[in-house]
Amino acid sequence: MEEPLDRKPMRLKPHVSEAVWGGNRLAEEYGIDPEGRKNCAEAWMLSAHPRGSSVVQGGTYDGMTLAALFEERRGLFGEACAGMDRFPVLVKLIDAREDLSVQVHPGDDDDSVLEPGESGKTECWYILDAAPGAKLYLGFRETITREQFANAILKKTLMGYVQPFEVEAEDFFFIPAGTLHAIGKGVLLAEVQQSSDTTYRVYDYNRLENGKPRQLHVEQAKAVTDLNPYEPTRERLKIFGTKKLVSCDYFTVEECAGRGEAEEDSFVHLLFLEADDDCVLECGDIELPVKQGDSILIPADAGKYSVDGSCRVLETRL
Length: 318
Fold this sequence. Notes:
Blueprint: E1 10-13, E2 15-17, H1 25-30, E3 42-46, E4 48-49, E5 52-53, E6 55-57, H2 66-72, E7 89-96, E8 102-104, E9 123-130, E10 135-140, H3 146-155, E11 162-166, E12 171-175, E13 181-183, E14 187-194, E15 200-203, E16 208-209, E17 212-213, H4 218-224, E18 233-236, E19 243-247, E20 252-256, E21 259-262, E22 268-275, E23 280-283, E24 286-289, E25 295-298, E26 303-308, E27 311-317
Antiparallel strand pairs: 1-6, 1-25, 2-3, 3-7, 4-5, 7-14, 8-15, 9-12, 9-14, 10-11, 10-13, 12-18, 16-17, 19-20, 20-27, 21-26, 22-25, 22-27, 23-24, 23-26
């Protein structure tokens, strides 16, 4: 007889990675354990990706990776996940102490360049903090040809074509697969994306990694990059309360004050961007203390939930 599913909320420990561009604000401000790394560039708060899975902390499934939980307890994730061969989304925190490389991700239809087992990568960015004058780089200033694109990569003049956006805290951008992009130094953000780690890098400021230039992926990028100007789906969030940021084929993301319902169709992931010291998540008969930087998975069909205390939450569901 199959073991009954425990639909209580679960705290997740993130997978953490360092990078040549990374800082340590995630450790200092969000309580993310860098686990001995030189920096804390990325924290994969909700991930079942083979290159780094979140891990359940406490409760019935304590110590299980999210990847294992998805395979062995699929009913926890909702009807929308029933026929999927991989967990569909990945939620990150990213701290860019220096500029990230200029890069692009393929879409689901780019079969000729996708790595085995990988999907495309549409994503969105919620700006948590930005130094004065900090920028994102998204798409092109004007339409260019593939020949111009290739020559600009070769001659290292690509940044003259790329479109900059100065940003501040609470900006939000939706970034379809195929959009050339880069996160500029001084930006701290949350990212919700398809569960993919396929990145085609085209420019990296001549930086060295382990004494060698970082690998570029010019041919792959030429095959998948949208060469038209990027038209931003951009919101500046100044109203406290629930606001739907984006709903697409891959995920729905809201900024909210910690109230909602987990229905039978989808799990809900809560990323606590802010939280008072005495915040408590209530769901059914469960009370779970939460703090800034916490990652909480609420299983599908768990019912209504709310946070007692002042908080700001990034909520992701299918």
